[in-house]
Amino acid sequence: MIKKGIFYTSILLVVAFISSGFKPYNSPINFGFRVDENKRLLYVFPSENNIDFFSSTVPFKGKYFIGYKDAIAHKESQGKYKKINTLGYLGKYQFGVETLKSIGIHDSSTFLNNPKLQEKAFITLLSKNKYELRKYIKDFEGKIIDGVKITESGILAAAHLGGTGSVKRFLNSRGAKKCKDEYGTSVRTYLKDFGGFETNGIKAIKNAKVK
User: Fold this and answer.
1) How far apart are CA 209 and CA 160, in angstroms?
2) Among 54, 56, 99, 201, which residue's CB has the most CB atoms within a 10 Å radius?
3) How many C-beta atoms surround the C-beta of residue 95 within 10 A?
4) pLDDT of 77-112, one tens digit each?
5) What is the pTM of this model?
6) Contact between 127 and 104 (Cβ < 8 Å)
């Protein structure tokens, strides 16, 4: 009986000794984790000030190229790959049949049912337009035309809307020629709404074709 008592006592002493290793003597209290019953719990450690943190959405797209693509797609079709508008423009980015042909796509039905092809077509058209407008990007980027700061991403978006010719007319006239599409959306609107995005990764390619 005595032996059993010694055995269990030893076990208790060992457990107490090990447990003490996780509770430092006189350890400082970290008020960052203290919960005040009278306040709403905010997970803002290590700072108690809300102004030290910024609000963000997940995923964060901002002015990155992925945000640029999504913004144009939403404007064009609400992001719907199988969208056909009343004028016959197709897909997520609303391509015309002739524009598709210019980048090597001749089967509009296949195009409409192939999201990957639509994404490739969008990049290809950007590359083609960037080459055709390379001089205008160089000469006008950073300037204010008709109250709009001109940027590369804005120029490329406006070219997607109305073609490179419309962009050239608007810039050459210093905004005097108000170029619009069939629904009344202006080149100026796209220059403004899609300005300042990252499009540096788009290569300027003469007569770019979808591969």
Assistant:
1) 16
2) 99
3) 24
4) 999 999 999 999 999 999 999 999 999 999 999 999
5) 0.71
6) no
